[in-house]
Amino acid sequence: MPEGPAAPIITGSDRFSTAAAKVEGWLHRLGGSPEPLSGLDRAGYPGRGFAAGWRLAIQFSDRRRRLDVLLPAGFPWMPPRIALVDRPPFLTWPHVERDGVLCLASGNLSVDADQPAEVVGHLLGLAAELIEMLIRGEGEADFRDEFLSYWSFAANKDGPPVVSLIEPAPPSREIRLWRGKGLYVVGDSDKAVKAWLANRFGTKLPVVKTAPAALLWMGEPPTPRGYPETALAFRTMAKHAGEEANSELERLMARQPAKMLSVLGFTTANGPALAGVIASPPQAQPRGTREPLTKGFRPGFVPSEILMRRYFGGGNVLRTEVARADAAWIHGRDQDERAVRLRGATIVIAGCGSIGAPLAIALAQAGAGRLVLIDFDTLKWANLGRHPLGAPYVGQPKSKALADRLRTDFPHMMIEHRVARLDAVIRSTPEILRECDLIVSATGSWAADSHLDAWYAETGRVVPIVYGWTEPHACAGHAVLIKGEGCLRCGFDGPGLPNLTATAWPGGPTERQEPACSAAYQPYGPVEIGFINSLVAELTLDAVLGEHRSSIHRIWVAPEARLARLGGEWTPEWRRLSANRGEGGFVLSVPWAEASCPRCRKALAA
Question: Could you tell me the pTM of the whole model?
Fold first, then answer.
């Protein structure tokens, strides 16, 4: 559909002219005397940016019809468009936009820029096939299968947009509605609506009050000629949908709301679709009755059928779009089976730095239902180069800032935070850990990780734990899932040195030091750490989804060229484990639990 205001049309000069000349020559050879379109003709397609075009007449089964071949300024890299000039009124036929441009392929159509005339010929063929199909009246099903697009075309532009949190499924039922300035939000409960608004807008909103609305499950969607224009037509539509939808509409109308929102649910071949209708009661007319709804009756004693006839009279309704913002739609558009399991998961992330913060964002995007973020540190300017939070959050606790960001970005989720060290949480509020489905430690602290490991062993090894850490310069990264057998100490000595490292640094220590006390850091950037973040995130997702029954260790190593450039080399242990794959740039998975681990032997003996 057209996008954006009109702007000066700038083409690729010689390449555009050459391609356009090839198209024009091909059209002349086709016959029919194509007529070049003037600038005034092309102005009939506002917002399209067409830089050239031709009009030609083609004989169809019913009559001759004129088509416009239209070249965008980006041609031949951008696909040409075909428009039907001689067409019935808008929304009579599917796939014909308001200005007559035909929808012939999906929005990601790829074309051969070296064959411009052949591309136009192909699209003209598709256009002819579509038009013949429409002439035969065979496009009705497309109106239903792509209902949302056509309802959007027919929606009243002065109607408020509606954001839906409801489960888009029968039965018809009462839902709750919040009316904001230029925005409606609907949900299955007061609690759901208020939680979403609190997350999305924080303290910017005054006291939130909701009102009743209705979800009417209508079944098969109508074609555009069945879209309701009047309140009477809308009531008739609800009656035809069945007793359940009609009864719900009656219950809502009995409250005589000043404006009544009904969300209509439809079942299409491509999944559920939602639309909105807003009806208003008849207004008092000059010199008429002051209360047209209750005329002739005492308030509260108007028979239901009379009240329905008066409320749903000849007045117009507003058709409005409903945008789904429920978890199933945001996380996979109803197609990701994993999202259902993730939605019920609680994940604790300890450490909200360059590994933990990207992990939290990735899990939120994947659809984890509840995240608990733990970190005591504050965000500093020096962190911004490899942390997803930016300047507005500098000086704030990382866990709180990240939670605030995620609540705003994903208001349907539950995001909690604790400004505390992991050690303090283990000692004072261990129930946070006991009651979750998975713990991820990205603290980079042996003190914190070894304490968590001890807690894991002491509490019966119930809650699985993922640990993630990097080697110098982020030239290797590790993700370990501890589940059932094994513990963190299976791979570390007492002071916290790993039994296996992939990289060695003959030049000496790799840490750098700020001009401050206790301000050492590893020098790496966001691109290098990105591979390790993905490693940890993928293992975390696998752990939540139950893909592993036992402990596992995954190692990612950088390409050898980067390692060598920074002065590193592979360790002998890594060369043996990886079968001497010196090129790097891959992930290796190996078992983690170690039979010789003294802590595990002690636990088994007990």
Answer: 0.91
